[in-house]
């Protein structure tokens, strides 16, 4: 029995020692890497478009039904697994965190897109009918550029991917749940990034509000409006996610998990875990 999730980097999966980008049709990709249907992590961004197939896909312990013309966006570190029914096909793009750095001066450019937030609800996008042929054409061009290996092919891949991200990003901001000022959206993203970095040491919204130079009340209002969660729930959900990830490692005791998450003792951690499991989630 495995004691932890395997972690894959692009070199693990590349047939040509490629370090920064892999583009493939999904059926052939899955045939080469059948073990990827089991729970695992990536050290890279992972993008999948399904054109055929059914079943389910679990991202950080949240399950989604697989269906044609559905896009999945995953960020480094997320745990996911597949459970397919019948034949599946589509496209897959894996790219490293460094892939766009040679083209973009703004190193955090991708973080403006909700589907790269690491949130399950934002990570899965059902393409509307009018966008399906456009997105399909972009993926066909990505496959062509990856196979043709012409001069500046990687830059063309970068441009095509950015075109895709902007196109899908517009969908997110047309959605009423994401209609907010650019400033407010930036604040919430900064809060999520701070939580990601400090969730084991800073566990109160007021501590993050101080870092953002806003009041705890304003931070809570922004989170409720944009995420459908209170500021405190954002912190607790991140701690809970890491707890689930750690508890799947059979080599760790509950006390060791509690210690890694900076709980005073394992009884307090156990109470937190049980309470969080019972707490109903609000779905926008």
Helix and strand string, N-terminal first? EHEHEEEEEHEHHHHHHHH
Q: Which structural class is indicated by helix and strand composition? A: alpha+beta
Return the CATH topology of the largest domain: Jelly Rolls
The rounded distance between the terminal residues' Cα atoms is: 38 Å
The residue fraction in helices comes out at 40-55%
Cα-atom radius of gyration: 20 Å
- Low-confidence blocks of residues: 175-179
CATH homology group of the largest domain: Regulatory protein AraC
- From the spread of the alpha carbons, the general shape counts as globular
Gross CATH architecture of the largest domain: Sandwich
Query: Main beta sheet, described?
Result: 8 strands, mixed
Overall pLDDT confidence:
84
Number of strands: 8
The total of helices stands at: 11
How many domains, in number, for the residues? 2
Strand content: 15-25%
- CATH class value of the largest domain: Mainly Beta
Structural descriptors:
single chain; alpha+beta; 2 domains; eight-stranded mixed sheet; 11 helices; 19% strand
Describe the fold and architecture:
This protein has 284 residues and is of the alpha+beta class. The chain is 45% helix and 19% strand. The protein has helices at residues 10-13, 26-32, 120-123, 132-148, 153-174, 182-198, 205-212, 216-227, 231-247, 254-260, 266-278; strands at residues 7-8, 21-25, 40-42, 45-59, 62-66, 70-74, 79-95, 124-126. The protein has 2 domains: 7-177, Jelly Rolls (Sandwich); 182-278, Arc Repressor Mutant, subunit A, CATH 1.10.10.60. The relative contact order is 0.10. A hairpin with a 2-residue loop joins strand 4 (45-59) and strand 5. Strands 1, 2, 3, 4, 5, 6, 7 and 8 form an 8-stranded mixed sheet that branches. The protein starts with 6 loop residues before the first strand and ends in a 6-residue tail after the last helix. It has 11 helices and 8 strands. The chain is globular and about 55 Å long.
